[in-house]
Amino acid sequence: MKISRVGASVAAATALVLGLSACSNNQAATPNSSASASTGNLTGTLSGGGASSQESAMTSWIDGFKAVQPGLTVQYNPVGSGAGRKGFLEGQYMFAGSDSAMSTDEWTKSKSICGPDGAFQVPAYISPIAVAYNLPSVKENIKMDADTIAKVFNGSIKKWNDPAIASQNAGVTLPATNITPVHRADESGTTKNFTDYLSNAAKTAWPQKAAEAWPSGYAGESAQQTTGVVSLAKSTEGSIVYADASAVGDLGTVAVKVGDNYEKYTPEAAAKTVASAKKIGGMAPQDMGVKIDRTSTEAGTYPIVLVSYHIYCTTYKDQATADNAKAFGKYVLSAQGQKTAADAAGSAPISGDTEKEALAAIDTIKVA
């Protein structure tokens, strides 16, 4: 994907929140003088935490990386983007995963931990967010425009056969089942991306700003992390949930209106959407955080999409941590790493110029 840059003023208003790297971490790594990803001589532990949506991809990365670097243990705690950021800042983690891009304010704060250039983020993969539902009697992909999705999640539309839904689904028998919206109870990058879509594409029905915390006052049920909300939706007939598409399993999924068409989620449609994203800017020179256009009418795009990031320090305090972070970061972005993630999570791989830029960014990691 080709990414262009927008000014820092846009970043201040629209940047999505990402965790900052606590590079003065509390976990010591075994020293490695100048080990590379290909030599297999790295040792110690590299700990990370954050987005639970990355769990499937992260498992595949850790397993694949272990074959390359058997002496280095990578640990990842899928606590959610919010909790991951907090742990990152407190020195619990050496890198973070997040479904939201780091803000300029947080980048400024990271300078005290990561040196004068602060932290930086690179895309780890691109993934659609599915709007999924539990209606065993409906075999088709239910069609909804942005306004309808917003009204379902704000509680204005209460039954599945509501005229607003039925009018977009001619020929589909919709039950008179009550709708149970399911949302995240924890702070979540997935929530931030989903509400960013609603606040941009359905401003009247969803006047709230994008946020990682679900807005209070709306009816529905909640659960912790991706696995929690999907499990709740699967056990609740009539439910509707937003979640990383890799996790929804056999739930039905909404075809979202884009222009004059209704688009099903696919990795390709997600990647096409992100291809026109603009860089946030105003942070470290190598930072790759982007702002996504949620209102595109271009055919073949899917606007409810997330770029899942890994965030590192530009400068670590010891050689071992720098070597380990650099090696793992390069593996994630390699053709092998991207393929294993795509196979495990159904994500769209990072490739082409974006892959080259991200690898070059990882290569700038240094020691104080």
Characterization of this structure:
The protein is α/β, with parallel strands linked by helices and 368 residues long. It has twelve helices and 17 strands. It has two domains: 203 residues, Periplasmic binding protein-like II (D-Maltodextrin-Binding Protein, domain 2, 3-Layer(aba) Sandwich), CATH 3.40.190.10; 140 residues, D-Maltodextrin-Binding Protein, domain 2 (3-Layer(aba) Sandwich). 33% of the residues lie in helices and 21% in strands. α2 packs antiparallel against α11 and α10 packs antiparallel against α12. The longest helix has 15 residues.
Topology:
Blueprint: E1 4-5, H1 8-14, E2 44-50, H2 55-68, E3 72-77, H3 81-89, E4 95-98, H4 104-114, E5 119-133, E6 143-144, H5 146-154, H6 163-166, E7 180-184, H7 189-201, E8 221-223, H8 225-234, E9 239-244, E10 252-253, E11 255-258, E12 261-263, H9 267-275, E13 278-279, E14 290-291, E15 305-313, E16 315-316, H10 319-333, H11 335-345, H12 352-362, E17 366-367
Parallel strand pairs: 1-13, 2-3, 2-4, 6-11, 7-8, 7-9, 16-17
Antiparallel strand pairs: 4-15, 5-9, 5-10, 5-15, 11-12, 13-14
Helix pairs in contact: 2-11, 10-12
